[in-house]
Design a protein that fits this description.
Elements lengths: L31 H9 L6 H13 L4 H14 L3 H12 L16 E5 L7 H11 L4 E5 L9 H5 L11 H10 L2 E5 L6 H11 L7 H13 L5 E8 L8 H17 L4 E7 L7 E3 H12 L5 H17 L6 H13 L2 H12 L4 H9 L2 H7 L5 E6 L4 E6 L1 H13 L13 E4 L6 E2 L4 E7 L6 H10 E4 L10 E5 L7
Parallel strand pairs: 1-4, 2-3, 4-5
Antiparallel strand pairs: 5-13, 6-9, 7-11, 8-10, 8-12, 9-11
Helix pairs in contact: 1-3, 2-4, 2-8, 4-9, 4-10, 5-11, 5-12, 5-13, 5-14, 9-10, 12-13, 14-15, 17-18
The structure holds uracil.
Uracil (URA) binds next to helix 9.
Length: about 475
């Protein structure tokens, strides 16, 4: 098993230091109400219009109501590819671009997801790619709508600091090979403001807003290759596969226009990914995957997305070769070693990072935030598990504190659920199938009913659940 190198200390991380630079002064050519009206009435926004709007968002001159109105106008009227690319650029330029040594060019890769339930892939993939020799400057997001956020999950590890300056990120990439950070006052600040506003204005499921939000964070990273995991299915931001494919194509196309090599993986999001949903429960499951174990659907997605990235960036000759290399990093402990280093370098007490990474599952649970109570649900009939619907599960978990309904609301990090059965498994009536971890009162009968409806049973013979990854859409410049 690979032993991790000594724990790096990244200056400023124990104090959570943040930098602040004043934004450029705005040069408004039109008043915001005029810009909002223009989009509301279905007109094309010019480069100057988009730049003025983003300036006003960042310098604080735009009121919350104006931001919400513009987001709704974009959500309802859409944006063409040119406007989407301009919005992406304006968001990216609201902060600093990251600069890396020339020698890292080929190794710089990243992955992002459009948002899922139980999706802890980034927690595993970033350190696994670092263990394969990549540099992964991952700028991630928080929970959005009913979907979970990588940053919120990582913050369930006491001490983990998602705010890192560009200088600290460079040190992290030098010493660890990966970091997972949030946008900040220096990094894509406009996306941070719009992201939080979308979450509370029913404007999350907008193709141009999702595209600009994701690609603006990636455009500043100076990548060699990016894979975006575009979810479809009931619990995805775009449930309809046709719309998800359109989003995938937009991401690949706008990415290419910005000089980014982007591939989009279409993956099913009907069932939760893995067996755990909820912040600290998902960190535990990510650690299991980093042990070379854990649920097969999670490992499958981590290895296949990682394989695609190693291939797209020209580091291996075939995706399967890349996937095998990522699998080796999970099995030999080198990916877990990188995760431990990343935790310690991003503010976690090194002793805690070590105990988490080398401890048993039971020990890990003691070290992470835990909910006060557990409550189990039982199968109402005999049958084969056809589906475990992620959406009702996520909605109930959000109600009991695992998600936000107002921007900035604190999360209950130990609240969540463990699936006790797998899709395709035969169950007998009365078998426990779900364990809910809760802090508050017992689940209401409406919540229990909603959760029971998440378990879909059939008369089919038991089966093996298919891989969630359906298709990889490649940029036209790349031949498989
Ligand atoms: N991830 C993001 O960063 N932005 C979105 O809009 C959706 C997922």
């Amino acid at each position: 098993m690979a032993s991790p190198p000594p724990i790096p200390v990244v200056p400023g991380n124990r104090s959570g230091a943040r930098g602040r630079e004043p934004p450029d002064p705005p040069h408004p050519s039109k008043q915001l109400p005029e810009l909002i009206r223009k989009k509301r009435d279905g007109s094309h926004l010019s480069e100057a219009d988009i730049r003025d709007f983003v300036h006003a968002v960042v310098d604080g001159s735009a009121q919350g109501a104006q931001i919400g109105a513009m987001l709704m106008a974009i959500r309802l009227q859409g944006m063409d590819l040119e406007e989407t690319a301009l919005l992406t650029q304006a968001l990216a330029m609201s902060g600093q671009k990251l600069e890396w040594p020339e020698a890292w060019q080929q190794q710089l890769v990243d992955k992002h997801s459009t948002g899922g339930v139980g999706d802890k892939v980034s927690l595993v993939l970033a350190p696994a790619l670092a263990a394969c020799g990549c540099k992964v400057p991952m700028i991630s997001g928080r929970s959005l709508g009913h979907t979970g956020g990588t940053l919120d999950k990582l913050e369930s590890v006491p001490g983990f600091n998602v705010i890192q300056s560009p200088e600290q990120m460079k040190l992290l990439l030098e010493q660890v090979g990966c970091c997972i950070v949030g946008q900040s006052e220096k990094l894509v600040p406009a996306d941070g403001i719009l992201y939080a506003a979308r979450d509370v204005t029913a404007t999350v499921d907008s193709l141009p807003l999702i595209t600009a939000s994701i690609l603006s964070k990636k455009a500043v990273e100076g990548l060699s290759a990016l894979v975006v995991d575009v979810k479809f299915g009931e619990a995805a931001l775009f449930p309809d596969p046709k719309q998800a494919r359109e989003l995938a194509r937009t991401l690949v196309g706008v990415g290419a226009g910005l000089g980014l090599r982007v591939a989009a993986a279409l993956t099913a999001m009907d069932n939760p990914l893995g067996r755990s949903v909820g912040h600290s429960l998902e960190v535990e499951e990510a650690l299991l995957c980093l042990d070379g174990a854990g649920p097969p659907d999670l490992r499958d997605l981590v290895t296949r997305l990682g394989g695609a990235l190693l291939w797209l960036s020209g580091q291996v000759e075939a995706q399967s070769q890349g996937a095998a290399r990522v699998a080796r990093a999970l099995d030999d402990g080198s990916a877990r070693g990188r995760f431990q280093l990343m935790l310690a370098a991003q503010g976690v007490d090194p002793a805690l990072a070590q105990a988490l990474c080398s401890g048993s599952p039971a020990r890990r649970r003691q070290l992470l935030p835990c909910a006060r109570e557990q409550e189990e649900l039982r199968a109402p009939a005999d049958g084969t598990v056809e589906r475990i619907r992620a959406l009702p599960l996520a909605l109930v978990l959000r109600e009991i504190g695992a998600g936000r309904s107002r921007a900035g609301e604190p999360l209950r990090l130990g609240v969540g659920a463990e699936l006790l059965v797998d899709v395709g498994q035969r169950l007998q009536r009365g078998t426990p199938w779900l364990r809910v971890h809760r802090d508050g009162a017992a689940l209401s009968s409406a919540q229990r009913r909603a959760l029971q409806r998440a378990l879909v049973l059939s008369d089919r013979a038991p089966f093996t659940a298919p891989s969630p990854l359906e298709e990889l859409i490649l940029p036209t410049s790349v031949q498989p």
